[in-house]
Write a structure and sequence with these properties.
mainly alpha; 73% helix
Length: 106
């Protein structure tokens, strides 16, 4: 019974603390990575392509064309995130890492 209570209290703690820890509030003194001319040009191309896609008429497209456009947008989004730098971890990955650390310390 104590194990269940301990486990539930840890899970409540994670759900209460996790959103606050995951908030991406940039600090004022935090410097953004400098982009090269090639990266800046590629990001501009991505912005232009996204604007073109937003201007498209989706009602006249077939299901396959819509799927291709969505896939292209996902790829462009991933590429833009990689160009901006940083490490991104999902909430599930952070919880698993914390659980492993807790198990290893006991």
């Amino acid at each position: 019974m104590k194990k269940i209570a301990y486990f539930l209290s840890i899970m409540i703690l994670f759900t209460a603390v996790s959103p606050a820890a995951m908030a991406n509030v940039p600090e004022k003194n935090e410097e953004k990575p400098e982009l090269t001319a090639e990266e800046t040009a590629r990001l501009d191309e991505i912005k232009v392509r996204v604007a073109e896609i937003k201007a498209m008429d989706f009602s006249s497209m077939s299901r396959d064309e819509l799927r291709d456009v969505k896939k292209e947008l996902r790829d462009l989004n991933k590429e833009a995130k990689q160009a901006s730098g940083g490490i991104y971890l999902s909430v599930g990955a952070i919880i698993i890492i914390l659980l492993v650390l807790i198990l290893l310390t006991n």
